[in-house]
TrEMBL record:
InterPro entries from the UniProt entry: MMPL_dom (IPR004869), Mycobact_MmpL (IPR050545), SSD (IPR000731)
Compartments where located: Cell membrane
Entry keywords, A to Z: Cell membrane, Membrane, Transmembrane, Transmembrane helix
Major localization class: membrane
GO cellular component terms listed in the entry, alphabetical order: plasma membrane
Keyword Transmembrane helix: yes
All copies of domain SSD, residue ranges: 243-365
Record's protein name: SSD domain-containing protein
Topology of the protein relative to the lipid bilayer: Multi-pass membrane protein
Pfam families referenced in this protein's UniProt entry, alphabetically: MMPL
Transmembrane region(s): 214-233, 240-264, 270-291, 312-334, 340-366, 597-620, 627-647, 653-674, 695-719, 725-754
Record has Transmembrane helix as a keyword: yes
Length: 770
């Protein structure tokens, strides 16, 4: 009793200190903001990113725009005067909005004509003059750059494209989109007759959903875990104390993230749910051991000390291996994955600290619990686990054979996994936002931007006739073989000026025939230099040009094939002594992530495996033990890889983290099992009896923690983001297969590897044995 009083004082002081730190964390968390910045998914530190940023500074970003598609009422075409009047009114409304820098619309598209010293812009469409409708529509369909860009091929829809301020953030972007939607409603245009697409639209939707899904997943996880804890411990404190510890660690983890100025994005939004389910492991192992000792008749103090002593090594080691699993994600060049790995790894270590400070303090201050089932009457868990242990050993040849067969089939299936991603990969195919994007791919040029930098050779200008002809040759290839549905370049400018100087006749929309004619055209170019499309396609001094376009989002595999073909064409058919080119743009950078995904995943997994191997070798000083630890945890990884291959799930940014995380988490139970086995062997001379006793002691905690982990991750399958869905599904499957391997392969491996050398496993753990 005398010893218990100082321990109580220590517990009070511990709670006070942790309370102050938690209050500080709450203050820090209050500063957190949700954010989805498309640019964050570019490969950080890549030379192509630096090049694009310099390119964008000269010509502007290729994704700072919003596409607004308007469908004509049923039974009408877009050339109906009433419909065009609405389009024109909407165009003028958008043009007057703040943060809108330029608007392109069918009602503002015009055919420039140069007469005398002036330039006259003749509109293509005249909604106030119905008699000109047939003439206007015929001219539109003959004019390059209008059909498929501003007007759909079937004349059933139009696009209003408006450029916005560079890198417009969510609040002003949301205000602009809300104003446009309000104007659409005011004009009586129903929601099913208009579509919006663009980076700003996706950014707005993603952030709003992140906030909602974070709340939903946390609520589902709390309900699920609470139910499992109650079924396991059947006491209020067995439910409340783990929840307090884990929720505290989530606050600490988010607080650290906020202190470093990191926002919650598509990846870091997984941190609370991930930590909630992963962080339960230590508390369950401690409480399970604590209750077991109480059941043996030990005092509260002795039970707690034994629980902490026996769980300390396994929990510390598992926290280390789990955090390493997350830290290895820092090998990624994608900033959201890097941040997710860093701060989740830190939070896992913080959870370990709270589990061995906050939890013992609360258990110490609570009265000794009354167990519902005395230890002497036996536990149903012992009977179930005992029968399972006997069955596994009796059928060990079948267990090994089936495991080997499944492993071979999984490896064969895993070879079918492909690395592929699209711009809106994380949205399901029936998502309204994705359907809107598909509308523009079906009816118009598409949403995937294309950028090619054009630099004339030294001593030349972008307006040299040879440079223009080479550029036109590239344009033709891109439209015929690459798949661009819309293209614009300095060639477009010169052709437009030539047409304008020749009365706006379509037959004159072509490059000049001679240097002399080009010289005359260039003297007139100054009349058009103030037009935004000129500034966007060529520098004023003619030292650099831009070839830009749009196409359907074909996915990274197809894009890589197209880019390889384009590079071959540029290398063999374009004279580099005339003009030099370089593929750039936001889509190119997103595709480039795929080149790094495999390397990053292999690097992360290799580091994780090597670190776990070194830790096991250092602590157990046994190669045998390393094999015993690795096999039951690599087998589930390979099986899930096989599931991915069989189901046709592609490797992409979101799914690339699955294997590293799953391995780091799955190895925890093995470490807990081995650490308990070493302690049991200090008192039990028979290896077989020691393994059986450990199986009974650790089996319950292994099953309960695995169920909580699988259940917690399974809540992610309700996500509207495909990436989050697959993270939840595949990590859940990995852990499910992991607990099966833990309860079947692990005891077989231990008994087989150490059947002749049981003393080797009894060696005390350096500095941590006990």
């Amino acid at each position: 009793m005398a010893l218990l009083m100082p321990l109580r004082k220590l517990a009070h002081l511990t709670l006070l200190a942790l309370g102050l730190l938690t209050a500080l964390a709450v203050f820090s968390v209050a500063q957190l903001r949700f954010n989805y910045n498309f640019n964050d998914f570019y490969p950080a530190g890549d030379p192509d990113l630096d090049y694009y940023e310099q390119y964008a500074a000269r010509f502007g970003n290729d994704n700072d725009y919003v596409l607004l598609g308007l469908e004509a009422p049923a039974g009408q075409t877009v050339f109906e005067p009433r419909f065009l009047t609405k389009v024109d009114s909407l165009t003028r409304f958008i043009r007057a909005r703040r943060h809108v820098t330029q608007v392109s619309s069918p009602t503002t598209a015009s055919n420039p004509v140069v007469e005398g010293l002036g330039v006259f812009n003749v509109p293509y469409l005249h909604p106030q003059e119905p008699a000109r409708r047939a003439t206007d529509s015929a001219l539109v369909y003959r004019t390059p750059g209008l059909v498929g860009n501003l007007i759909s091929r079937d004349a059933r829809a139009v696009t209003v494209l408006f450029q916005t301020s560079p890198n417009l953030s969510k609040p002003p972007g949301d205000s602009l989109l809300a104003a446009v939607r309000a104007e659409l409603a005011r004009q009586g245009i129903p929601e099913n007759e208009y579509h919006m697409a663009g980076k700003m639209v996706a950014q707005s939707v993603f952030v709003d959903r992140l906030q909602m899904e974070l709340l939903v997943f946390m609520s589902l996880s709390v309900v699920l875990v609470t139910g499992l804890l109650w079924l396991t411990f059947r006491t209020w404190w067995g439910v409340v104390l783990p929840l307090v510890v884990v929720l505290g660690s989530i606050l600490w983890g988010l607080g650290v993230m906020s202190a470093f100025g990191v926002s919650i994005d598509l990846m870091t939004a997984l941190l609370p749910v991930m930590l909630f389910v992963v962080g339960m492991s230590d508390t369950i192992h401690i409480i399970t051991r604590y209750v077991t000792e109480l059941g043996y008749g030990a005092s509260k103090k002795d039970s707690l000390l034994i629980a902490l002593k026996e769980s300390g090594f396994g929990s510390g080691l598992s926290a280390l291996t789990t955090s390493i699993g997350f830290f290895t994600l820092m090998t990624s060049t994608i900033r959201p994955i890097y941040n997710f790995g860093l701060f989740t790894g830190i939070a896992v270590l913080l959870t370990f600290v709270l589990s061995f400070t906050l939890l013992p303090a609360m258990l110490l201050l609570l009265r000794k619990p009354q167990l519902r089932i005395p230890r002497e009457t036996g536990h149903s868990w012992d009977g179930v686990l005992g029968r399972l242990f006997r069955t596994v050993l009796a059928r060990r040849h079948w267990v090994v054979a089936i495991s080997g067969l499944v492993l071979v089939l999984s490896v064969a299936s895993a070879s079918r996994i492909r690395i592929n991603s699209a711009l809106l990969d994380d949205l399901s195919k029936n998502d309204p936002v994705k359907l809107d994007f598909r509308f523009f791919e079906r009816q118009f040029a598409g949403v995937r931007p294309f950028e090619l930098d054009l630099k004339p050779a030294p001593g030349r200008s972008i307006y040299d006739l040879d440079v223009l002809r080479q550029t036109e040759q590239i344009e033709n290839y891109l439209q015929k073989d690459y798949g661009l549905n819309f293209v614009a370049s300095p060639v477009t400018l010169i052709k437009s000026v030539r047409k304008a100087l020749n009365g706006g006749l379509l037959a004159e929309y072509r490059l000049p025939d001679s240097e002399a004619e080009l010289a005359r055209l260039l003297r007139k170019v100054k009349l058009f230099r103030k037009k935004p499309e000129f500034r966007a396609l060529a520098l004023p001094d003619g030292s650099e040009g831009r070839l830009t376009g749009r196409m359907p989002d074909v996915g990274s595999i197809r894009a890589d094939q197209l880019n390889a073909g384009l590079r071959r064409f540029l290398r063999t058919s374009v004279d580099s002594t005339v003009v030099q080119t370089r593929l750039t743009g936001s889509a190119n950078l997103i595709d480039k992530n795929n080149e790094n995904l495999t390397l990053n995943m292999i690097t992360g997994m290799s580091i994780d495996i090597v670190m776990v191997t070194l830790i096991v070798l250092l602590l157990f000083r046994s190669v045998r033990m390393t094999v015993v630890v690795l096999i039951p945890n690599l087998v589930p990884i390979l099986i899930v890889a096989g599931v991915m291959g069989a189901a046709g799930v592609s490797m992409k940014v979101s799914t690339s983290i699955i294997f590293t995380i799953a391995f780091g988490i799955a190895v925890d139970d093995t470490i807990h099992f081995i650490s308990k086995l070493k302690l049991v062997l200090l008192k039990e001379p028979s290896l077989f009896k020691a393994v059986r006793k450990t199986y009974l002691m650790a089996g319950k905690a292994v099953i309960v923690t695995s169920l909580i982990l699988v259940g917690g991750f399974s809540t992610l399958i309700f996500s509207s983001f495909d990436g989050t869905f697959y993270v939840g599904l595949l990590i859940g499957l990995t852990l499910l297969f992991g607990v099966v391997a833990e309860l079947t392969l692990l005891p077989i491996l231990i008994l087989w590897f150490y059947r002749h050398k049981p003393k080797e496993i009894r060696q005390p753990v350096p500095a941590l044995g006990g």
